[in-house]
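Below is a typical protein record.
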Amino acid sequence: MLCAFSIYPSFYILLGLPREIQKSKTMKRIVKNALVLLCLLHNTLHAQNRSNTGQPSAAVVSLDVSGLPYDNIAMGSLVRLELEKLQKFEVLDKYDVEYIMKKNKINPAEAFGKRQLVDVGKLLGADKMLTGAAELFGEKIIFTLRLIDVKGDKIEKISVLEYINDQEYLQRMVRISLQDLLNMEVDKEELDRLVNLERPVITGQSTYSLNGPRFGMQFFSGRLADRMTAPKEEGGFNANPFGTVFGYQLEKQYLTAGEFQAVIEFIGSINGIESGLFTPSLAVMQGLRFHGWEFGFGPVVRLNRTAQGYYSDGKWIRADEVPEGSDIRLIREMDSRGDIGVATSLIVAVGKTFTSGYLHFPVNLYWSPMPEFDSHIVGFLLGFTIADKESNR
């Protein structure tokens, strides 16, 4: 009907009729009826052409936006763009939509309700209307999309997805939400990267456990490195001045104050297995965490083989006792021919825990002085764990 009345004033000029006839009520009725028939024929042909493509028409007016750097109209344009890319609908041109909205004095920035959009859809001649909301809520971006069936006067489908707060990827979030709404295949890797998995809640009444496997490397310096690389006939281990570490961490949190946690950690490990060695160790550490960063320190106990002896011209000489009258001072040194004993030292560590949903990936650097052997051990540990929440009550 809109097209008929928009060209009605100029129709008489095209016919070239005298003004007396133009003013006739009968002629005015004939002209109006003819124009209505022409518009109906145009709409019928347009609908038939659309049905031949097999695609229903859809229109996007705007989206309700809160806390994001887009206004309602701009977000609607972004959704319209991604909807066109999917080629599931004949998406109505935004200028046509704007014209009809303006003509009917409807504010597109406030048109979100089903009842209102059904009316707009009828004015546009659209089969579907797409609307929704995009909200920044805490550390999440929540996208809600609704597909409205104009003829059926009902909400046909709804999609609600929560994303990480990375606004650089808003367009990708829109695409994923549309694919979810239309039951299309979604890129699983991209979905996992952007969708916000619920994280366990940490409160003053909860403990937060990061138990899990640990693995890494450690490096030796000083006399300890020399003994590791020395041949076995000289009491060495014929190995590298570094080695692998495989262990497991158990911990108990005893204090929580907001983002601050204090824990006791027990880390047992087996070291140097790539060199055929078996050197277990156990570290008991006091750990302090804040915003994912961690600092820890405590004693570490290691089992190793040592023997008494002395150095002569830089060569290690094993000796169970000093010859009488000699001024040689015996020391204890790492020796593959020696007895299994216990060595204790301090260990200091610093690290950062990276989080993705329920998964946590701790990365730690540590240092352990070995004054008995005039040496140091430095290394790093990686791990993964699933957050576990337990109540203190």
Notes: The first strand starts at residue 57 and ends at 60. Residues 1-36 form one domain.
